[in-house]
Amino acid sequence: WIDDHGNIQVNKGYRIEFNSALGPYKGGLRFHPSVNAGIIKFLGFEQIFKNSLTGLSIGGGKGGSDFDPKGKSDAEIMRFCQSFMTELYRHIGPNTDVPAGDIGVGGREIGYMFGQYKRLTGRYEGVLTGKNIKWGGSLVRTEATGYGAVYFAQNMLEARGETLEDKVCTVSGSGNVAIYTVEKLYQVGAKPVTVSDSKGMIYDKHGINLATLKEIKEVQKTSLEHYIKEHPGAQYTPVSEYKEGRNEVWSVPCFAAFPSATQNELSAEDARELLKNGCICVSEGANMPSTPEAVDLFLAAKIAYGPGKAANAGGVATSQLEMSQNAGMEYWDFATVDGKLKNIMKNIYTNSSETAKEFGDPTNLVLGANIAGFRKVADAMIEQGAV
Ligand code: NDP
Ligand code: 2IT
């Protein structure tokens, strides 16, 4: 792709098509300098079982690039997206592989990629999800992952006779998933007090101001440090001041935690601190945010722990609802899609917890989600002739 100074730039792109037993390959695209084959493979592998858990007809895949969107102009983002799609278009299609967004890929990037696909193929079809609602997108897709992670937490808590009402919650990240987790937490009467980005974290004991958060991250696309200009009572801690390099978000006492930034962002030490401070619920908006050691601690403590493949499946589930609307040339209203999302999250919880019971460890949703997700894919592959 050509940058604004006329220089040729080269980045590496990936699409890992992992399993299509249940439907077309489906999963997001991540644009971040850390992207490599290993990261895309772990995300694609998780995606197979997450997509199976949704109960919908979608296989698993993932893709992306080591392209860094930070500091790039709109025109540079557009030219990169066009170059990326110029290679990707021959591998994807509404019945073969349907990419969407992930870290660094939102509505703007999906728009540029959709336009290039259409230019190259001449076809107007549901080849990507997360499209603008003006031209084929679905209502609720933007909100779906964050809303879904909160719905999942509500299901876990209801089974324990608890609710999120009036409870202090912590959220990491400040992108698509984090913003709509914060929004839904307010809607259910909870108080989210933290958000973070790659430069630092905000602790606002009065509750994160959602309008300021959206203005900084969705409109200005800048750093969270600007939050304290509007809300001087809040606290900003830059990464350089994090103790032992640990995200300060997890040292804030909370009832429920929503890791919503990236993989391995919550360590064993963080898990110990959360448990010590009385946290009884962790619902993962991000993919594999808790390290394996942290997961073991949550399971041993028997708190309500929702692994990402179950708790954040609302995003891809709503992507499938977008595919459905595209295929049927329909357009469903907000309440219809939100109602379906809520129902899907409830079913994922029920399926995971019943499978956990079946295998003798009733509170272990890691076990339940892994086995329930795997079993359906494995059965389908065997029934299709071990294909
Ligand atoms: P965004 O790009 O919208 O936001 C990512 C957020 O996490 C930003 O605040 C970013 O900070 C922060 N972040 C990313 N990488 C790092 C890092 N290495 N260290 C510290 N902070 C980091 O992405 P999403 O909100 O879409 O995705 C967040 C997580 O949710 C990912 O794990 C993704 O795979 C998962 N997910 C996303 C879904 C979706 O529908 N979008 C669906 C299911 C899961 P900064 O801006 O400073 O980089
Ligand atoms: O990790 C994920 O589930 C996503 N990034 C969303 C994938 C999708 O196809 O909507």
Summed up, what is this model?
With 387 residues, this protein is α/β, with parallel strands linked by helices. The chain is built from 13 helices and twelve strands.
Helices and strands in order:
Elements: E1 13-19, E2 25-31, H1 37-53, E3 60-65, H2 74-88, E4 97-100, H3 107-121, H4 141-158, E5 168-171, H5 176-187, E6 191-192, E7 194-196, E8 200-203, H6 210-219, H7 227-230, E9 235-238, E10 256-258, H8 268-276, E11 281-283, H9 292-301, E12 304-306, H10 308-311, H11 313-327, H12 334-358, H13 365-383
Parallel strand pairs: 2-3, 2-4, 5-6, 5-10, 10-11, 11-12
Antiparallel strand pairs: 1-3, 7-8, 8-9
The structure holds NADPH dihydro-nicotinamide-adenine-dinucleotide phosphate and (2Z)-2-iminopentanedioic acid.
Distance between the termini: 38 Å
**Percent helix:** 40-55%
* N-to-C series of helices and strands: EEHEHEHHEHEEEHHEEHEHEHHHH
Instruction: Write down the overall mean pLDDT.
Output: 98
Structural class based on helices, strands and sheet pairing: alpha/beta
Strand order, largest beta sheet: 6-5-10-11-12
Query: How would you characterize the largest beta sheet?
Result: 5 strands, parallel
| Annotation, overall tally of beta strands | 12
Query: What spatial form do the alpha-carbon principal axes imply?
Result: globular
Q: Cα-atom Rg, whole angstroms?
A: 20 Å
Associated small molecules: NADPH dihydro-nicotinamide-adenine-dinucleotide phosphate, (2Z)-2-iminopentanedioic acid
Low-confidence stretches: none
Q: How big a fraction of the residues is strand?
A: 5-15%
What's the total helix number? 13
